[in-house]
């Protein structure tokens, strides 16, 4: 399994919400785990598990349902914590499959020897089953400094590693200190496959980078440990009509 990355502020907020709810759970066996999820506007929704001898939903599934009840779009982050001070918990196999089907671009907070870490849900379920009827909303994350370029149409490509996109409608999400997070409806038009070493000057121009070397340097900074032969995707996108949510 890939090494989890450190938490960024949005993921830390999600974990803090799960830990705060877990701290309120009583000693009984019915509700022992709390979960929090964040959508693409930065809203956080929480839930607790419901244990019963006939079976019961995990906290992650309850939180996903709470988000859906509020009309939330695709989820960006999921975190669970155990009551009685057990701290961060990993999702079970059923929750991993549920998240992969419904929110394939979400990041999951995990316990590691060095503290909470972060992995894409698809890394938690390699070779996972692809539900034929699943058609979830998709998203692309951007650092806030790219918002102006994306909004103006100057930046129309992004290079991704271990973060597969899909052609079609998507949300373009800018994670910063604004609440709600700014997001734009977008469309992924095509995806080109490269390795880090084979990125071209043309690829760099599409990204808005000054050169292919500068693009590679930026990717090495964003993805620590990436190697020259690592497969990357050059995702070409455009901003859709404002106000038009992805279908």
Could you explain the architecture of this structure?
With 247 residues, the protein is an alpha+beta fold. Helices cover 26% and strands 28% of the residues. The protein has helices spanning 9-22, 59-69, 93-102, 121-124, 147-152, 201-207, 212-222; strands at 33-39, 44-48, 75-82, 87-89, 107-110, 117-120, 139-142, 157-160, 168-174, 183-195, 231-239. The strands form 2 sheets. Strands 1, 2, 3, 4, 5 and 6 form a 6-stranded mixed sheet that branches. Strands 7-9-10-11-8 form a 5-stranded mixed sheet.
List the helices and strands and how they pair.
Elements (H helix, E strand, L loop, with lengths): L8 H14 L10 E7 L4 E5 L10 H11 L5 E8 L4 E3 L3 H10 L4 E4 L6 E4 H4 L14 E4 L4 H6 L4 E4 L7 E7 L8 E13 L5 H7 L4 H11 L8 E9 L8
Parallel strand pairs: 3-5, 7-9
Antiparallel strand pairs: 1-2, 1-3, 3-4, 5-6, 8-11, 9-10, 10-11
Helix pairs in contact: 6-7
- Uncertain regions: pLDDT < 50 for 5+ in a row? none
Number of strands: 11
Ends apart, CA distance between termini: 33 Å
How are helices and strands ordered from N to C?
HEEHEEHEEHEHEEEHHE
Helix content: 25-40%
Largest sheet: 6 strands, mixed
Keywords:
247 residues; 6-stranded mixed β-sheet; 28% strand; 5-stranded mixed β-sheet; 7 helices; single chain; 26% helix; 11 strands; alpha+beta
Briefly characterize the structure.
It contains seven helices and eleven strands.
């Amino acid at each position: 399994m890939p090494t989890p990355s450190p938490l960024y502020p949005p993921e830390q907020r999600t974990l803090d919400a799960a830990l705060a709810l877990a701290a309120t759970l009583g000693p009984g066996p019915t509700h022992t785990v709390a979960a929090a999820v964040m959508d693409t506007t930065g809203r956080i929704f929480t839930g607790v598990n419901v244990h019963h001898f006939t079976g019961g939903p995990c906290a992650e599934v309850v939180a996903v349902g709470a988000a859906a009840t509020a009309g939330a779009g695709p989820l960006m982050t999921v975190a669970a914590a155990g009551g009685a001070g057990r701290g961060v918990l990993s999702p079970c196999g059923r929750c991993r499959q549920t998240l992969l089907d419904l929110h394939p671009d979400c990041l999951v907070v995990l316990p590691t020897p060095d503290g909470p870490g972060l992995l894409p849900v698809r890394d938690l379920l390699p070779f996972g089953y692809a539900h034929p009827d699943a058609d979830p909303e998709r998203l692309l994350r951007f650092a806030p400094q790219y918002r102006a370029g994306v909004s103006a149409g100057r930046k129309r490509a992004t290079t991704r590693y271990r973060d597969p996109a899909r052609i079609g409608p998507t949300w373009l999400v800018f994670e910063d200190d604004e609440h709600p997070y700014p997001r734009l409806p977008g469309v992924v038009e095509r995806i080109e496959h490269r390795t880090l070493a084979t990125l071209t000057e043309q690829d760099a121009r599409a990204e808005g980078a000054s050169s292919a070397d500068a693009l590679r340097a930026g990717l090495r900074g964003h993805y620590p440990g990436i190697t020259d032969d690592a497969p990357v995707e050059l995702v070409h996108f455009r901003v859709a009509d404002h106000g038009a949510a992805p279908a």
